[in-house]
């Protein structure tokens, strides 16, 4: 512990965001950075607790106190090397992880947690800028071939680990870009796509093969896949969005959030979209249904597209603002989250159920909603009932952002004959192993929609299971 009193004398200092009027004019990353001296001082605040709750709460098991100490001492390369032992892509999680570790930091009891996520991102950026990140090819190849289907964080983590174990890895992606939802689902203002391309350059130099524009199960059959490879890792994600089957659902102007976000990411990437296919918020009243992170991304994207107004509604009650007795420290708190996008101009409302879409000449013009009241029964289940009179919220563009229900069964998964669990996810009968021999699972396809950090952790575990199987 380099400075045992730092947490008493140095306050938490965040890098903060670019000014609102500046950042809403482009899709550049909104988060700023501290200089190296301030960053090292922030790392010095770590108390190196006897029980490191930050380590306990991190799905990856990042050895957080140790690399904070190395960062404080200016040992950037050693800090990166230690971080890399548990996290394949700290440059991703340092940007988009909700930082479960910070919520369980002992200093969070005083609302002054360590800036763990920002420190992680700073270490990764320093490593790339100083040339610490270099291709590292395995000393020996095993002669075994593994197919990874899906190139999101789970698939990339599995591919990285398996490649370093000496196996020949081929990653298949149905879209034109590698990265899955990291690439097409998360806006550039949160994760600049050059960050992904930079990492891909390293993985390609390490001889991982990437195949884009190939939908396995369609362009490449399940039978061919099993015949060509010694093991298969399914990392296709939970691709079925939760729909809202109410009156007027077929009106034009009602879209799934991911359709909207994917198109904008393609536009930022330099692609052109025919005018007839463009999903634009410009000059429109936008209604985002769903209060999660994806909904927040829709808000920020709509603002940048110059929407007339943006409203986000959520069917659940508004969470407490600062503390929630139901989720006490060191658990991740269920409290009100206000993102950078929310601060850019958005009306937020809770406890509203959508009853019907209202349209004119085939296009949506409003959504009828009703306020609901939630009560908890003796069995612990929450039930709702409508209260008050229905109202209409003007909306020329409605974005459904209510999460995902399960992976897509049609095609590859059904053709493989994998077993599903009660929620429709691919069931892992053994850790990360499906019911079909030599077919393994990683990420949302088996765990359900979750966080990037949990996807990476699942990919790492799947790789370990595959390596054991091949050995």
Keywords:
3 domains, five-stranded parallel β-sheet, 471 residues, 16 strands, FAD/NAD(P)-binding domain, alpha/beta, Fumarate Reductase Iron-sulfur Protein, Chain B, domain 2
Summarize the structure in words.
The chain has 471 residues and is α/β, with parallel strands linked by helices. It has three domains: 6-129, Alpha-helical ferredoxin (Fumarate Reductase Iron-sulfur Protein, Chain B, domain 2, Orthogonal Bundle), CATH 1.10.1060; 145-239 and 405-470, FAD/NAD(P)-binding domain; 243-402, 3-Layer(bba) Sandwich (FAD/NAD(P)-binding domain). 33% of the residues lie in helices and 17% in strands. A hairpin with a 5-residue loop joins β11 (363-376) and β12 (382-386). α14 crosses α15 (293-304). The protein is globular, with a radius of gyration of 23 Å. The mean pLDDT is 97.
Short description:
This protein has helices at 6-9, 20-23, 36-44, 53-57, 64-72, 76-84, 90-96, 100-104, 116-129, 153-164, 181-184, 193-205, 222-228, 257-268, 293-304, 412-416, 444-447, 452-470, and strands at 145-149, 168-173, 209-212, 231-234, 240-241, 254-256, 285-289, 309-314, 347-350, 352-360, 363-376, 382-386, 391-394, 397-400, 404-406, 439-441.
């Amino acid at each position: 512990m380099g400075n045992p009193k730092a947490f008493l004398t140095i306050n938490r200092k965040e890098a903060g965001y670019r000014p609102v009027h500046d950042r809403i004019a482009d899709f550049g990353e909104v988060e700023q950075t501290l200089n190296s001296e301030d960053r090292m001082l922030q790392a010095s605040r770590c108390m190196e607790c006897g029980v490191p709750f930050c380590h306990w709460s991190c799905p990856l098991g990042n050895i957080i106190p140790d690399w904070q100490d190395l960062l404080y001492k200016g040992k950037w390369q050693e800090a990166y090397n230690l971080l890399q032992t548990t996290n394949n892509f700290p440059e991703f999680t340092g940007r988009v992880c909700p930082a479960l570790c910070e919520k369980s930091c002992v200093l969070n009891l005083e609302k002054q947690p360590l800036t763990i996520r920002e420190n992680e991102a700073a270490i990764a950026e320093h490593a790339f800028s100083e040339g610490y990140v270099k291709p590292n090819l395995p000393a020996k190849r095993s002669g075994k071939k593994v197919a990874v289907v899906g190139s999101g964080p789970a698939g990339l983590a599995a591919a990285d680990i398996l490649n370093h174990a000496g196996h020949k890895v081929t990653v298949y992606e149905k879209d034109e870009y590698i990265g899955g939802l990291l690439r097409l689902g998360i806006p550039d203002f949160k994760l600049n796509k050059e960050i992904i391309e930079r990492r891909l350059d390293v993985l390609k130099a390490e001889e991982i093969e990437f195949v884009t524009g190939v939908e396995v199960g369609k362009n490449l059959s399940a039978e061919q896949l099993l015949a060509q490879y010694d093991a298969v890792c399914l990392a296709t994600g939970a691709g079925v969005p939760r729909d809202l089957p109410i009156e007027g659902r077929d009106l034009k102007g009602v879209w799934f959030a991911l359709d909207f976000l994917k198109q904008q990411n393609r536009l930022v990437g330099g692609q052109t979209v025919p005018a007839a296919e463009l999903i634009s918020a410009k000059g429109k009243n936008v209604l985002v249904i769903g209060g999660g992170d994806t909904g927040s991304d829709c808000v920020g994207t709509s603002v940048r597209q110059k929407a007339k107004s943006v409203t986000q509604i959520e069917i659940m009650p508004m969470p407490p603002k600062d503390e929630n007795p139901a989720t006490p420290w060191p658990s991740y708190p269920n409290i009100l989250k206000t993102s950078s996008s929310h601060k850019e101009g958005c009306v937020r409302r809770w406890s509203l159920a959508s009853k019907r879409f209202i349209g004119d000449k085939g296009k949506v013009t409003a959504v009828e909603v009703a306020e609901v009241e939630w009560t908890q029964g003796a069995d612990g289940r929450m039930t709702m009932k409508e209260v008050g009179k229905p109202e209409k919220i003007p909306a020329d563009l409605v974005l459904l952002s209510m999460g995902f229900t399960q992976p897509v069964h049609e095609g590859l998964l059904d053709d493989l004959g994998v077993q599903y669990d009660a929620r429709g996810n691919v069931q892992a009968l053994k850790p990360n192993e499906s019911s079909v021999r030599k077919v393994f699972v990683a990420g949302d396809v088996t765990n359900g929609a979750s966080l990037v950090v949990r996807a990476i952790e699942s990919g790492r575990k799947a790789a370990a299971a595959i390596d054991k199987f091949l050995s």
